[in-house]
């Protein structure tokens, strides 16, 4: 008999899963805003915050995984004007943890923002939410109103002389705005095109001022770290929020220790595949991470282990594909996404994505040629390491992996009689 | 072109006041551009040249900059759209979970292809990228409401809610 | 990019060669300095690196992937490879990406032969195309206004043109639209581009996507003979290449001159050359017989002129006068001065024909009191009645780059300037209130101003430059205004610039075309002529009939003058009324020098020989002098230069000889009366525009089209009151005259003021104005109905 799987206790996600956490009173009764109050009143100094965050091992949850403590440290203390900018442009395909947190417990985010702002001495924070978070925006706006009325946000937070104003700013429909410098461009009212680095946002970010730029989930970890202490926090893994979706029985956000095996996330947390289906492949960290096959099911889901197998943790979003998925269609749809969302600034991303989707569509429509596979590999090579930002660089790894592990599926499409009706249709098209 | 052209004014005083308020939230007034365009779009239905000129005048930005920025973002409409906009996610999780049936069902029911608007001006159908609701795949957003786990059979009762 | 020598140098290795460059240099620039060529498309050395095209990839030791050399700053010990197989593969991949949607229509493309994409493809590109998909399909070239054509299929989206408008010109003329693979550059709604500098985008386009509609399909670059000369339109003296083929200037390009125009030009410079080859050029002398101008020989024409001058001298001295200078070279002006002062013996010479009789323009020497480069290092700029993009466009580019480095701009004018978004403080007042506004500003600067105010910034500025323009110098109460401007300059320890003088006006002033002892200034010459005091009036290279700010003053002068000689290239309105017309060369047909607004001597090279029997003004003056018994003989050009130096100071080609200092002694009055023009109704005001339809510009199809039909600006509030819509035809009536124009409804003009551009031969605004007033109460009447759908 197999023991039924019991997920370990969660310390971050539980706030969003508990009932009524959109309400300030409920959040406070559960101990909310105490960590921020202690930072505001000086009971916890900025140095202590940075120390705790550093000790916790917290790394950015947006995809790049940069150590959060270091990021806090990089903000020049003496700069007169600084900003906190929250990246809530959650757009990486099949990532939905930030949305879950905002809708479930907006106060956790607000408290995280307060801690970050008070730590670096920023008087203003902007939350850049993707426009499609209509519900999340309503929830966050209402929570902010409550927090402002309680004196936690605005001028003189928690009765101290410190001001922290929080402004929610909606995007307008552009995945690339999730890239941090493109987000700043967008927040400044321009086309969301990534900026050249250096300078990094910590030196010259929003309006050229030092800017702490963090993902929603990252900031939601701060109150938890300060409340429990870094050691206790770390003992939970440290914890990470995984979005698991696709061909699984129970898609959802799961909190699990960093390093949880991919197999466990899929088969334990998410309930495995649907009856009668078998595992084919999975993207471990959003569609930008390299596709893994069953040989990697036991890979620990942490930064280093995934890098060792050529993939990455990214936004910790597991997209599961089963035996009914046509790999060429999946890859075509993925590359099509990057084609649609490419900002158009740099040549290889703008031209490579359209070229690859043109070839893939041809293959899907029974007009493929044997030469197309080396051609695809060559286009992918031309995009590798040549793009301005990670968006274009997301295309070659999974395309390459699919050509390596599922070449037969491409060949099957190509082998079909020229002009045969398509076996599958791409849904998006253009 | 002459921004702030009184004869060509299309936005209400309330919208103009709201746009002016938005500029106060930021160190640079251009930051208010996207929110301002949504204020204008909500009122005018879509961003006609006249509307964008007016927004440019209110924010003291070049019309070229306003139109260039507006054209970049997929949720700013430079062409007229229906009273209700239906966004069907077609990214991986929704694709794997049957969004194709939803798109096909909507196409059939509305008689328009993705990108199209029904002749009665009621609906615009759009296929979109990941809505970050993959736990609810297939996900559909109508106006500002998110509908979870939509199947072709749900279409009629969803559409009923949007006269 | 900007490097700071105080930071020291770094040494790196590029392709095995040791290269030492100042710290802060990019790898691309370091390679270039060592003679190593790295292909580029998006990078332009006058703009910050962008890193978008990815063509300049290099391999750097210890770096995980290829790097863009244009964005990578060289560091000590860096080892760079620009040629290895990995680099070549990367560059080939990028080039292939660029070419998949490029039509490769080089044989019919204007850029062919000077196209970086063509060159790179030849050097680095793959031999054959693996792209079998349908290429991106755009409608064939679209016109973005009268001078610019855009072929989107050829565009490789390097963003240079867009960034030029954002960074260099600040006019945001061309923009990126859409995104990703559907990205394109263009204008909103494909409307005509609004810019004074768009020619530069054609020049820096690395493919044939942006082309000139006036040059399209006219020549191949290798057939053009480039002639290094100077643009003589606005007086800034921008260095140009005149590209000549078949005896005709095909196009004008910027020639690099870091001290003046750097690598840029304005669109008048780019597109204002077709008049040279106009078929309307005068080719033979004309004399009036039986009331009609008829062709004659040079001999006969010169004899007639000389005899009339001799007759006048017999009646006494000072009965001959000379007007002109703007379109003369320094040498022409020097000869004119020698002829009229020394030989004819008259003190009545002047080049300031567009000055008003009592305005401040006549009281101060014109020009800049600092070099253009020095101005570029300023930290506070104050524009008083000065509109740089309409008057001296390329100077604006200097100001813009200074603003980007932290300088601030304050503008005060009787209209909203195109550059208003770049001004920290902008004040728009009606024309008749300009002087009072400048006086208020002066008082505030003297009090060091309120915190955050323009006055405070001016008072605290380290390198303050105050520019007083024509609207101020010839406006109401201009004497008081100029005195107030001088107070601002003195309180701020700044520099006062008199923004007056077009073409070679400053050369004319320097070489003697100014009143001598007891001589009359231009308005007085006209007044005296009207009373019959002149026997002979010679007008050279200018058109008083359209340039004098009161048309009736010119008409009266003409009527009162017994004998009018005009030397010009065209049968201008002035020439049509002449007794003798002498066909003259224009500046692009002359060798010699001109003097720019700084007092810099810059050289002219003849691009084409000139039509028919046309002669240079200098030669004409010499021939008349000879008829009068004096030979101007110079064995060599050095001898001539020595004589010019003896008269005008130590001029050297390429160098600045400062213009005389501003002296305010002459400012005794208040200037032209404002009491009379004070009105509760509408006031009509004339304004200088860059694009006009004058004697020369009216013969440049690009400029004529850019100028648009004769029009006036009406404020939206006034338009509502008058029942006017945009583009409606209106009739303007003053006590003095009438004019029919197209109304443009615009808040660029203040309420209560109708602004009319100068420079339209067919609709001269000076018909509406009467000296001493420079503005007039006006009635505006809507004519008929506006054309349906006339907007935008």
How are the elements arranged and paired?
The complex is a heterotrimer of chains A (430), B (163) and C (792).
Chain A: H1 13-17, H2 24-29, H3 34-41, H4 46-56, H5 68-74, E1 83-88, H6 97-104, H7 106-120, E2 124-129, H8 134-149, E3 165-170, H9 180-187, E4 211-215, H10 216-228, H11 230-235, E5 239-246, E6 252-257, H12 262-269, E7 279-283, E8 292-293, H13 303-308, E9 317-322, H14 327-341, H15 347-364, H16 372-383, H17 390-393, H18 395-405, H19 407-415
Parallel strand pairs in A: 1-2, 1-4, 2-3, 5-9
Antiparallel strand pairs in A: 5-6, 7-8, 7-9
Helix pairs in contact in A: 3-7, 4-5, 4-7, 6-7, 7-10, 14-15, 14-18, 15-16, 16-18
Chain B: H1 13-23, H2 33-44, H3 49-59, H4 63-72, E1 84-89, H5 92-96, H6 99-110, E2 123-128, E3 140-142, E4 145-147, H7 155-160
Parallel strand pairs in B: 1-2
Antiparallel strand pairs in B: 1-3, 3-4
Chain C: E1 9-14, E2 17-22, H1 27-33, E3 57-60, E4 67-68, E5 79-81, H2 85-100, H3 116-124, E6 142-143, E7 148-150, H4 160-168, E8 175-177, E9 184-186, H5 198-204, E10 210-212, E11 225-230, E12 239-245, E13 248-254, H6 267-271, E14 286-289, E15 292-295, H7 298-315, E16 320-324, H8 330-343, E17 349-350, H9 372-376, E18 380-384, H10 388-391, H11 393-404, E19 408-413, E20 425-428, H12 434-446, H13 454-460, E21 464-468, H14 470-473, H15 478-491, E22 495-498, H16 505-510, H17 522-530, E23 536-540, H18 544-547, H19 551-560, E24 563-568, H20 573-576, E25 580-583, E26 592-595, E27 601-604, H21 617-627, H22 637-648, E28 682-687, H23 701-707, E29 711-714, H24 716-722, E30 729-733, E31 738-745, E32 753-757, E33 775-782
Parallel strand pairs in C: 1-5, 16-17, 16-23, 18-19, 18-21, 19-20, 21-22, 23-24, 24-25, 28-32, 29-31
Antiparallel strand pairs in C: 1-2, 3-4, 3-5, 6-7, 7-10, 8-9, 11-12, 12-13, 14-15, 14-25, 26-27, 28-33, 30-31, 30-33
Helix pairs in contact in C: 2-3, 4-5, 7-21, 8-21, 12-13, 12-15, 17-19
